[in-house]
Amino acid sequence: xxxxxxxxxxxxxxxxxxxxxxxxxxxxxxxxxxxxxxxxxxxxxxxxxxxxxxxxxxxxxxxxxxxxxxxxxxxxxxxxxxxxxxx
Amino acid sequence: xxxxxxxxxxxxxxxxxxxxxxxxxxxxxxxxxxxxxxxxxxxxxxxxxxxxxxxxxxxxxxxxxxxxxxxxxxxxxxxxxxxxxxxxxxxxxxxxxxxxxxxxxxxxxxxxxxxxxxxxxxxxxxxxxxxxxxxxxxxxxxxxxxxxxxxxxxxxxxxxxxxxxxxxxxxxxxxxxxxxxxxxxxxxxxxxxxxxxxxxxxxxxxxxxxxxxxxxxxxxxxxxxxxxxxxxxxxxxxxxxxxxxxxxxxxxxxxxxxxxxxxxxxxxxx
Amino acid sequence: xxxxxxxxxxxxxxxxxxxxxxxxxxxxxxxxxxxxxxxxxxxxxxxxxxxxxxxxxxxxxxxxxxxxxxxxxxxxxxxxxxxxxxxxxxxxxxxxxxxxxxxxxxxxxxxxxxxxxxxxxxxxxxxxxxxxxxxxxxxxxxxxxxxxxxxxxxxxxxxxxxxxxxxxxxxxxxxxxxxxxxxxxxxxxxxxxxxxxxxxxxxxxxxxxxxxxxxxxxxxxxxxxxxxxxxxxxxxxxxxxxxxxxxxxxxxxxxxxxxxxxxxxxxxxxxxxxxxxxxxxxxxxxxxxxxxxxxxxxxxxxxxxxxxxxxxxxxxxxxxxxxxxxxxxxxxxxxxxxxxxxxxxxxxxxxx
Lengths: 87, 270, 352
Hints:
The complex is a heterotrimer. Chain A contains 4 helices and no strands. By secondary structure, chain A is mainly α. The N and C termini of chain A lie far apart (about 60 Å). By secondary structure, chain B is of the alpha+beta class. Chain B is built from 5 helices and 13 strands. Chain C folds into 2 domains: about 210 residues; about 120 residues, Rieske [2Fe-2S] iron-sulphur domain (Rieske Iron-sulfur Protein, 3-layer Sandwich), CATH 2.102.10.10. The two termini of chain C are about 40 Å apart.
């Protein structure tokens, strides 16, 4: 029981450590590549989203590696029905 | 939306709120603040009044007496003057800081006169010392040690086999380090403390509101320690032999025979 | 909304909101702790703080949860919605203070790592009265953390509004976990019916307000849902011009989603009802300075093109519209977001 709990916590801890390391790099370089609106944004903004980057790093990493250069636009039946593309 | 002028429209980033919206908003906020006050008052009034155990946090005193490291670490301090019907010694149970028992700290001083520093914890006539580690020093022996076996034998009372229902707590928190130091919310802490060597105690609640506290021992007179972890903070029924030494009660029973009780029934008589 | 992100976009209204929030929290905590210490001198400071922060977080969560349905029922509550994020983040901070103190108090300074202790100290998962309630609270805190840490508009844009909203809908899971945390935790020891009644009242108000606002939505949608097509072409008769107030809209369901039919300056324009920011209901907004303005956070769109005025970049789909004999006819095929559509003129078509 205790060993199992220690394993769970260790995995959780490793996830967060990777997230923290990733967050530092992402907030310094990556963020402007996945969202142009973040280009030149103040340090306060970057600190504010730091915890979220630590928690959701796999998603942002996939966006960064996948070369998506802007946030995805949302989908709903009107946007899909219109062909989806922005004018 | 009937009382709300149709042309009024709240936009958060504009500096001023339309007057009608603003008036309504002030009423809503006042309502929420009243709700806040009411909630605080109701929740405070609804809570049980807590019994007062005392932990003299920050007040370190020096004690001298005969150390008995087993089965439960206790310091026997001779009462001054003629004690009459009172036991010859005051008993100060010894625990370590944090959620730890003092067995490791006092083991080498078993049956020796010592001086130590610590902080008092007391409730319902039971007193405990949270000892400052490394403050224990051996002192020259005095006559207490020689007289002890006869004193203990004289002060021992046997109350026979009894069936008691109550709650297992960790003695340190229950006696005053935490308030409340019992029941469900405190369960994990009690588990941690007992697991760390703090001696477990059995609290029997009586109908008249009084409580009896018994130290839990196995049939051989050793502390039950970790064997009770799974039953902490739940209604438990224990059948065992109750014996008294000085002012203290001990309940001797095999921990394997402890049973979960449907609920904590209150004992009519002590 | 803007072209670059800032840290916290405080404005006058948000400052007032946060000030009132801070005063409310100080009021609650000082009353709870002050009155508690006075009536209950046996309680330790740690106990008062743990209980104070925990109950404060739960009270705030109730307010967070009822703002949504209250705004659906009565638009006068909308100013509470405007800065609800700060309320949510504050709820998380109160919960974190509660959890941090409780983990220290009950699990630290022992023979195990406090977090391991949290997981293993109580394993009575199959007993209701003895259930390890602390793990339920921890689960709720993790959800509140995910919501608080993704509350910035950066996340709204990068996760996209529907994903972000789905993530933030997990607040209901957190709420359920917390109700169980309290019921299986402190209420097992504190048996005064007053406390159970207070929790019950909170739960009842959250559930009933959601049921009322939900049933209203369903009724409104079933009234406005259009299935009959105009026989002459692909245009659908959605309503009469007179049913729409000036500078306001009527909401009807078309092509699987709601559309907002706006009337302004003798013209009619039709937009998708879903604001690109947080999916607020544009049709419940109004035309301000020539722009359709969302009632939730004031995001604006030009009525003829569905595009935010520069420098903003949000766009919503638009619909072709005409007015015939005082009836508004809409083509149900959505046009790509930001497509300009000539507004239908009311006077030109009034006669024929």
